[in-house]
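I am going through a labmate's work and have reached the protein record below. What it holds is a sequence and that sequence's fold in C-alpha cell form. Please read both lines and tell me whether the C-alpha cells look consistent with the sequence. Do not assume that whoever made the record got everything right. Thanks in advance; the entry in question is below.
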Amino acid sequence: MIKTEPQRRYWLMELIAYWEGRLTANHLQQFFGLSRQQASKDINQYLQDNPGQFYYCSSRKGHLPTPNFKPVFISDDVTEYLNWMSGQRAHAMPVDTGYRLEHAILTPPPRNVAPRVIRPLIGAMRQGLRLEVDYGAVSKPDRDGRIIVPIRFVNTGRRWHLRAWCEKAQGYRDFVLSRFHGEPSPEGSQRSPLPDDTAWDTTIILILKPDPRLSPEQQAALAYDYGMTEGELHLPTRAALAQYLLNEMQVGVKMLDGNPAAQQLILANHDEVKPWLF
C-alpha cells in the first residue's frame, strides 16, 4: 500500500520508538530534513491521531512507547527495523508510479524477536557495554547464561543475527536473535580492548564451479546463468560470512548431494577456504 507523507513519518516514529525505545524530534529532523518545529509538530499530531501510544519522559528527553503500545504503521517483525537501520531510509519507501506490475513476494514466517531483547543490544553497541544474556542454541537447547559484548547485526540472507564477543567462549560468536530469552542485563563497560575479529577482517575468495557430474550442456547453462568467467565464479566475502554465503548458494561442502542437478555448484578451492568454515 502506498503511504502518504504523514504515514511515512508515523511509520518512522513507531519503528524507532518500538525497537529503540525512545523517539526524539531529532530522528525526524535527520531522516526527513525537517525543522525542529515541524518535527515536534508531527510528533504531537501523531499523539492526537493515536492516543495512548507514546508518553514523554523528561529524564530521557524523548517519547517512549507506553505499555499498551500497539503497532499501527509498522509490523512487529524485527527484520523491518534492521533492514531500515542497515541502509534503507524512510524517504526511500515506495512511491506511486502510476502503474502496477503483477508480482509475488515469498515471505517466510517472522522470527520471534521482542523489543526487550533488541533495545539493550542497540544500547550496548552504542555505548560499548557488556551484557549478560540467556541464550539457547539448537545444538545446545539447554539455555545458559553468558556475558557478551555486542558488535554488529549481520544479515546472512535467511535471517539476522548478532555478532558479539563472548566472554565464555573467549572468541567472537554469532547469535541468532530469536534464541535470546528474557531481557539482556547490563554488566558495565568493557574491561579491556577487545582482540581483533580476524574472521571478520579477513577477505577470502570463494571459487564456485558447475558440478562436474553434470553434462557439458548443463555446465554451460550454469556458467551462463551466473556470468562465470572461464567456468568459474569468484565471490569475495568476509571469512566470517563464508559459510552463510555457501548455504545461501546451496553449495554443500561436507558432502555432495546425490543428485548433481540439485547440487549444481561446487566449491573449487575447498582446502583453502576450509579453515574458515563451520
Observations:
- The first strand starts at residue 54 and ends at 57.
- The chain has a mean pLDDT of 89.
